[in-house]
Design goal:
The chain is of the alpha+beta class. The chain is about 35% helix and about 20% strand. It is elongated, with a radius of gyration of 29 Å. It binds zinc ion (2 copies). One zinc ion (ZN) binds next to helix 7.
Length: about 475
């Protein structure tokens, strides 16, 4: 339906509403969601990624260990619950990477040809303070490449995200912010220096940063509070501490981005709010309104697989916020294709006409025409009024006389011109008028094949 729902039409105050911070995705917005999913799937398949879904909830411990104890996500935003008899604690997934790494380990994906390339389009949950463009249930698409340390992987993931933004018409608004946070070896020295620098300056730091100083001084660098930012500007620079391997890796990522002509801004302040990153971190920002509005980000996480119980395995990933991308598309006045249009309305009067109308609707739909019919007892005037509201191109009108004479009226809804045609020719005529391009045809039987391979149990029988 193309018509917007108007809240004025509500007669009584509504009894139930969506909880704070969550929202319905109404049909108008699904048009955006659909095109985003399509673009993501298309670009992912082109680059050899396969889709994965992990459960909505998992062991809370997975997220505390994976995402990191000192992070906002785990500390303040995790939705967790315990099973009835005080059993294991679970949490709704706040992000995609921890679950996918768990799955990689659990299913022995290290036996597959490496690297393993996976993508997802899923809902996630964070008990965030609700604000514009931020929800407690939100959707992300993302990519993970597990099993390869080469900087080419980092560049490829960034390029993939960029191509998706370009396909959706928002790439020009976004700048790629990139940084390296090194490996545990060089980062540890740096965090020590940072801690030394900030100690004694606590009274100029925000409450969060005082706590971060203990847990993860690196995160003081991306605090948005002004006082913290001023201090951060004069803090020791990682560029002076980075080890040769990390420096070389970062340089190669940048050179590869140059090679595929992707612009970037080097941002030494960028550290990302999650613990699992190492080396490359990046975000796509919209800076048009002054604020740092990130639509997505990612980076390398070479130590997470091992940290979650697997073998040492390098990896890199990206996640994009679908709701934020939709907001950007709308701000850029990009319309998502509306595939829900209704082409034909079949109006009828009398029970005999209703039978014929049902047959016609069936035939039209089989031919790929989006067809609606009023099967209630409304007057012809009301039915045609409805056809108008659905903005259909044509109406087929059947009264008792028409049924008797095996005729039907075809009405062009925009001009009001009508012609009487034989019922048997109606479908053919409508299909011709609409044109092949607007037909919505899908034949799953062309894709679904019978599996003719011998099943393992049958193989046993043959051997017996
Ligand atoms: Zn290093
Ligand atoms: Zn702060």
């Amino acid at each position: 339906m193309s018509k917007k729902l108007s809240s004025k039409k509500l007669e009584k105050p509504v009894k139930f509403q969506t909880p704070r911070g969550v929202h319905d995705i109404l049909p108008e917005d699904h048009a955006y969601l659909t095109v985003i999913k399509k673009v993501v799937r298309h670009r992912a398949r082109q680059a050899g990624f396969r889709r994965i879904s992990t459960p909505i909830f998992e062991s809370k411990d997975l997220f505390t260990r994976g995402v990191g104890k000192g992070t906002d996500i785990v500390e303040k935003e995790l939705y967790s619950f315990a099973t009835k008899k005080g059993g294991e604690e679970y949490a709704l997934k706040p992000e995609g990477t921890a679950g996918i790494v768990r799955s990689y380990i659990q299913h022995g994906m290290n036996q597959l040809p490496q690297p393993v390339e996976l993508y997802y389009i899923e809902p996630f949950f964070r008990h965030d303070r609700p604000q514009k463009g931020r929800y407690r249930q939100f959707h992300q698409f993302g990519f993970e490449i597990i099993g390869e340390p080469d900087p080419g992987i980092d560049a490829q993931i960034i390029q993939l995200a960029h191509l998706i933004h370009a396909d959706l018409g928002i790439a020009e608004k976004l700048t790629l912010q990139i940084n390296t946070i090194g490996c545990p070896k060089c980062r540890e020295k740096f965090t020590d220096q940072l801690r030394d620098y900030f100690i004694g300056k606590e009274r100029n730091l925000c409450k969060n940063c005082v706590r971060r100083l203990e847990e993860n001084p690196l995160r003081l660098l991306d605090c948005k509070e002004e006082d913290c930012r001023i201090l951060a500007e004069n803090a020791p620079k990682f560029a002076n501490m980075i080890c040769d391997d990390c420096k070389d890796h970062h340089q190669k990522v940048l050179e590869l981005l140059d090679a595929v002509e992707i612009d970037y801004t080097e941002n030494p302040q960028l550290v990302r709010g999650l613990d699992y990153y190492s080396r490359t971190v990046f975000e796509f920002w919209d800076e048009s309104e002054g604020a740092q509005n990130s639509v997505g980000g990612g980076g390398r996480y070479d130590f997470l697989v091992e940290q979650l119980g697997g073998l040492p395995t390098p990896a890199c990933g990206y996640a994009g916020g679908i709701e934020r991308i939709i907001t950007h598309m709308k701000d850029s006045r990009i319309l998502a294709p509306d595939k829900d249009q209704i082409d034909i309305f079949v109006a009828q009067l009398g029970f005999e006409a209703k039978k014929v109308a049902l047959q016609l609707l069936t035939e039209l739909r089989e031919e790929g025409v989006h067809a609606l019919g009023a099967l209630g007892k409304a007057s012809m005037k009301d039915q045609l009024g409805k056809a108008d509201k659905f903005e259909v191109k044509y109406a087929l009108i059947l009264g008792e006389v028409e049924v008797r004479e095996k005729k039907i009226i075809l009405r062009d809804m925009s001009s009001g011109v009508q012609e009487v045609i034989p019922i048997g020719k109606a479908v053919e005529k409508v299909v011709k008028k609409l044109g092949k391009k607007s037909l919505d045809k899908y034949d799953p039987s062309k894709e679904l094949k019978k599996d003719t391979r011998v099943r393992p149990e049958e193989e046993l029988l043959i051997r017996d």
